[in-house]
Design goal:
Structural class: alpha/beta
Helix content: 25-40%
CATH architecture of the largest domain: 3-Layer(aba) Sandwich
Number of domains: 3
Distance between the termini: 46 Å
CATH class of the largest domain: Alpha Beta
Largest sheet: 6 strands, mixed
CATH topology of the largest domain: Rossmann fold
Order of helices and strands: HHEEHEHEEHEEHHEHEHEH
Radius of gyration: 31 Å
CATH superfamily of the largest domain: von Willebrand factor, type A domain
Length: 369
């Protein structure tokens, strides 16, 4: 039986999630929900929702409901002309927030609906098969932990009735050894669609903390969407200045170097990661590169060679986001545009500031690759 309070609570949750959907663009562009993350839940600050309620005046103060009232007469405290008698305050009013927990699956659904993202179609044979045990049979032998109690007692009851020893007045059923039945498992092969994501970021001196914050926010939403599309997702991180290396997530977002920039060094590391860990016949591969566009001029030719020869042929999507920096030249985007028409999986985006994150995500994920 459903209680009235349960219906009210479910209705309240729907209202709160409606508020999250209304303000999703703000959350996407400003990263307000990244403060506390669990494995499958995030906390989002939303403005408090005021519940309608009656406000009572002082007893005997008159007003509608206490004697004769006039049309338009104020019900609450204070005069009808609206002039208050309280003391003026010196502090600004506070805006109150409520933390709402939303699952990553719900966020992915909201993101897909808000940005009109198509469902991803995995490439060709990019499937892994896993063998799982499904308990869908009954057996006469097995471990006691798998005993099927209901079937065991039904079998014992049938035996006692057929033997004429069952007493309805004293319905005691005691299973014997031959009555025991156990759940049995069959091994089934299930296909799983998996994705490998490699994030690449320039950490040279021209990339500021503001640019890294943009990358972190955008990566969170990319992860959320791709995890909703694939059974399993593996993520790797590569940073570079003139030299590149694979790192963990914390190092990826908190490293700052002061050297020059050779993007080809990062492409080599990405190529090695894909060759060693993620063969394209078994994985759907995504590379997201973020840079301010600076690169050593003579390195551009080598970058395009590695990109066209090794990376683009195996990637579902190779996404390059150029984050505007007061110190970056932005020239590398022009180099990539010279080959963009030949590859529909090469996706380019200019990210001027946090407000541009919203459009950049749609560019990267909007093709359903």
């Amino acid at each position: 039986m459903t209680r009235g309070i349960d219906n009210d609570f479910n209705r309240f949750k729907q209202i709160v999630r409606g508020k999250v959907r209304e303000n999703l663009k703000k959350y996407i562009t400003h990263g307000e929900m990244l403060g506390r993350q669990g494995r499958s839940i995030v906390s989002i600050p939303v403005s408090n929702i005021d519940i309608p309620h009656f406000r009572h005046g002082k007893k005997g103060s008159g007003g509608a409901g206490q004697g004769d009232g006039e049309i338009g007469q104020s019900i609450g405290q204070g005069d009808a002309d609206g002039e208050g008698t309280g003391q003026a305050g010196s502090e600004p009013g506070e805006r109150h927030f409520r933390e709402v927990e939303v699952s990553l699956a719900e966020l992915a659904e909201m993101l897909g609906r808000e940005l009109e993202l198509p469902r991803i179609e995995p490439r060709g044979k990019n499937r892994l098969s896993t063998q799982k045990d499904k308990y869908n049979t009954i057996r006469r032998r097995g471990p006691e932990s798998l005993r099927h109690l209901k079937r065991t007692y039904k079998r014992a009851l049938k035996r006692m009735i057929s033997a004429g020893v069952y007493d309805p007045e004293n319905p005691v059923v005691i299973p014997e050894r031959d009555d025991r039945l156990y759940r049995g498992a069959n091994s089934i092969v299930q296909p799983e669609t998996n994705a490998a994501i490699v994030y690449v970021m320039d950490v040279s001196g021209s990339m500021t903390d503001e640019q890294k914050s943009i990358v972190r926010t955008e990566a969170f939403w990319i992860d959320t969407w791709l995890r909703s599309q694939y059974d399993g997702v593996e993520i790797r991180y590569v940073i570079h200045d003139a030299i590149a290396k694979a790192v963990d997530e914390d190092t990826f977002y908190h490293t700052k170097e002061s050297g020059g920039t050779r993007i080809s060094s990062a492409y080599r590391v990405v190529r090695d990661i894909l060759n060693d860990e993620f063969p394209s016949d078994d994985w759907n591969i995504y590379v997201f590169q973020f840079s301010d566009g600076d690169n050593w001029g003579e390195d551009n030719r080598l970058c395009l060679e590695i990109l066209e020869g090794d990376l683009l042929p195996v990637c579902n999507a190779f996404c390059y986001g150029q984050v505007e920096s007061p110190y970056g030249s932005g020239e590398f985007l022009k180099e990539l545009r010279t080959i963009q028409a030949k590859y529909d999986n090469l996706i380019l985006s200019e990210i001027e500031n946090k407000d541009a994150i919203y459009g950049s995500i749609k560019q990267f994920l909007g093709k359903g690759k």
